Amino acid sequence: MKIGILTHHMVVNFGAYLQAYSVQEAVKKLRPDAEVEIINYIPIKHFIINTVGWFLWYKNRQNWKNWNNIFRLPFTLKRERSKHMNLSPICFSSKAISRLGYDLIVVGSDEVWNYSDSKSVNPIKFGHGLESSRLISYAPSAGNSNIENIPEIVSSGLSKFSYISARDSLTVKLAEKITGKKIQEVLDPTFLYPLPSEPNPYLPDKKYILFYYCEHLPPKLKEQIFKYAKDNDFAILGAGDSDKDYEECTVNMTPFQWIDMFQHASFVFTGTFHGAVFSVLNHCQFKVYLTNKGRIAKVGALLNSLGIENRMMTDDYVFDFSTQKHEIDYSLVDKSIAEKREMSIKYLKDALS
């Protein structure tokens, strides 16, 4: 059997890389008899916008001294994809994908069904043009799309799937509205099996506070956190995130070195879905600051599902590690994850059968 995985694997983003890798590894574990590939499909518009966007200059956060570190990450991720992902030949169309002869295609994870995002919405990821293969989904997200106004490419596409799951409650509602069937909500694939880490050369010899894309944090909050860190001998680093106020620029690293930064952090501040995911996976105490509507929806759904919705920061938040270092009871969180993991793996195993 030949199985293809269709997802956002080319995005210059550690979370995107790790979710694609995790789907690949989960499918390989559940179907060791199958030939498993990540479909190296490159939608030109999404690829160009994402790649060009990576090289934008943010004068209030970055400095030229760190530019070489930032510039090299897309090439590092390209090398890591070649090393750890079983990639198909490059495809630019559904016809090219169909010629590869997949018996089954897994669509997901990530926001592959976010039809409100004009740069990445794509009929192929709703199954259009993939007529020769059986289609299933694993943990796709529709982001913050308006499910009261569903485009025809979405409604007609989802009807082609023999198994559908979703990563969040909004996408569940979308799929149930289209299909009239009960839809399984499953974990992001990074939760399914332990992921490796690699020693990170950026780690300091002292305790540190880690930031991962909290770029819209109000100056007053940022200043208070940085002052606390200085007064209490914490280093401040970014998890593959550039800011001239961090002690080092830590952008150019492998995804598994990125995981290592979470494993040793004393506290994490993040504004992203996978920043929250890897904080949870590594039992970090953490807070999230969210301004983007899509991130509010998907991070909020994750936190609510794990019973830790109080991770959201408000503008009057005051950081004090001594009183916040035990706020999350991970024995309860781990129990919730274990139940959801068992259910998610069972869904994927049944869908791949």
Keywords:
4-stranded parallel β-sheet, alpha/beta, 353 residues, 10 strands, globular, 12 helices
How would you portray this structure in words?
- The protein has 353 residues and is of the alpha/beta class.
- Helix content is 40%, strand content 10%.
- The chain is built from 12 helices and 10 strands.
- It has helices at 14-30, 44-54, 67-84, 94-98, 152-158, 169-179, 219-231, 255-263, 273-281, 293-305, 321-324, 330-352; strands at 2-6, 35-38, 104-107, 134-137, 165-166, 184-185, 208-212, 235-238, 267-270, 286-288.
- Strands 2-1-3-4 form a 4-stranded parallel sheet, covered by helices on one side. The protein has a 4-stranded parallel sheet with strand order 8-7-9-10, sandwiched between helices.
- The chain is globular and about 60 Å long.
TL;DR?
By secondary structure, the chain is of the alpha/beta class.
**Spatial order of the strands forming the largest sheet:** 2-1-3-4
**Considering DSSP H and I runs of 4 or more, what fraction of the residues is helical?**
25-40%
Q: What is the helix tally?
A: 12
Low-confidence stretches: none
| Overall 3D form | globular
How far do the termini sit from each other? 10 Å
How do the helices and strands follow one another from N- to C-terminus? EHEHHHEEHEHEEHEHEHEHHH
